[in-house]
TrEMBL record:
Pathway: Amino-sugar metabolism; N-acetylneuraminate degradation; D-fructose 6-phosphate from N-acetylneuraminate: step 5/5
Activity regulation as described: Allosterically activated by N-acetylglucosamine 6-phosphate (GlcNAc6P).
Site (Part of the allosteric site): 144, 151, 153-154
Keyword Amino-acid biosynthesis: no
Organism: Myceligenerans xiligouense
Name the record gives this protein: Glucosamine-6-phosphate deaminase
Gene from which this protein is expressed: nagB
Top-level EC class as recorded in UniProt: hydrolase
Documented EC number(s): 3.5.99.6
UniProt xrefs under CDD domains: GlcN6P_deaminase
Amino acid sequence: MEVVIAPADELARLAADSIEALLTRRPRTVLGLATGSSPLKVYDELARRHKDGLSFAHARAFMLDEYVGLPAEHPERYRNVIEREIASRVDLAPGAVQGPDGNAEDLDRACADYEAAIAATGGVDLQILGIGTDGHIAFNEPGSSLASRTRIKTLTRQTREDNARFFGGAVDDVPRHCLTQGLATIMSAKHLVLLATGRAKAEAVHQLVEGPISAMWPATIMQMHPHASVLVDDAAASRLQLADYYRQTYAEKPAWQSL
Ligand SMILES: N[C@@H]1[C@@H](O)[C@H](O)[C@@H](COP(=O)(O)O)O[C@@H]1O
């Protein structure tokens, strides 16, 4: 696991560098897209690079998760968020972005179909991630099986309170259920790039990097991934015990070495 502590703009550039390198090497790259505020600067950077010629025309993308039961046109439906924040700003082909169908009549079936769709592409090359204050990734709440696959989950009160800001502050308007890639699904991606900024994430980041692997802090499973990059700003790094070592390692990183 590589930990980079840097200002948010630099973190976004690093993540975008990795994505650009992948797209250049293999135009049919499969990206994993996350919602939430953490990846927004990365999406801005990718949109900027697209204007400068970076093409997503042959890429495909999979979303991490989706609320259950939000009307198709609801602005906070993750499908619409991803369309707004990234898909519509680059040249991803129509239908190139897929997400779990939170309005399916048969939700179990929708989850199984989603797993099959990801597998059919050969898997996600680079997965962008944020982290919840309780250590969840995608919507794998504390207690999630470390071996889980895409399935229906019940959101915690904490997550619904955290996400109420996207629903005009009304926690009761935040859905109670979601479909989410499981931890094993996420672990199948070839490169995980997690972004976290702000003091509210400091404990979750400490657990993720330095805590024992535990379903109580689901993101800790990333310690088992052979290629995981954890990109954090000073505030999110403020509880890291080995922060000085991570800073030194990054400062001394050879120029040719990417994330
Ligand atoms: N399902 C999403 C996660 O994918 C995201 O990582 C998390 C953190 O969000 P933010 O980046 O806004 O702090 O929020 C939601 O719960």
